[in-house]
Amino acid sequence: MSTDVNHGLNSAVGTILRRRREALDLELAQIARTLRIRRDYLAALENNTLEGLPGPTYAVGFLRTYSEYLGLDGVDMVQRYKATTDVLNDKPSLTFPMPLTERGVPGGGLFLLTTLVLIGLGYGTWYYISSGRHQTLATVEPVPAQLAAIAPPPQQQAPHTPGAPATAATNVAGNAAP
Question: pTM of the prediction?
């Protein structure tokens, strides 16, 4: 390790990275291509900022990889970075949905309501049928005597044979014409 790495925890990690890179005479673009980490991310690490990085977890991974590429102790650099940055130590507030309690499911109430409706419909039907108040259709009244004298009695009507052709001498009632 070089002497500028051992400046203690007060030394900014980004300054250490930049000095080491410059001492090795390397360009950020060249390192970015080799490590396949965007140049902007490496520059953010050298500037001691998380702005522009995809997230704290990625920042730690990028820092470890970048430090080890420069020949530095990656674990030590991550510890230094965590000591100087509060963002990595903050735990996100996670809120998970709570499952419905048994009181939230309307199973018992729905069953009771369905049962009451069916009992009501059954009672209503029984009451309607047994009360005798329902309206029945009137029976057909007998044919008045005046009309009965004009029309021949039903026994005298000639039965119509299915399949027999209807002739002009047969009227609508199936009787022979007079």
Answer: 0.45
To 5 degrees, how large is the angle CA 128–CA 132–CA 138?
110
Separation CA 167–CA 174 (nearest Å): 10
The span from the CA of 66 to the CA of 72, in Å, is 9
Average pLDDT along the chain, 178 residues, taken 10 residues at a time: 39 85 91 91 84 82 91 88 66 73 66 92 89 72 83 61 56 51
How far is Cα 84 from Cα 69, in angstroms, rounded to an integer? 22
Q: 170: which strand partners? A: 176
**Phi-psi category of 7—alpha, beta or left, where left has phi over 0 and alpha has psi -120 to 50?**
alpha
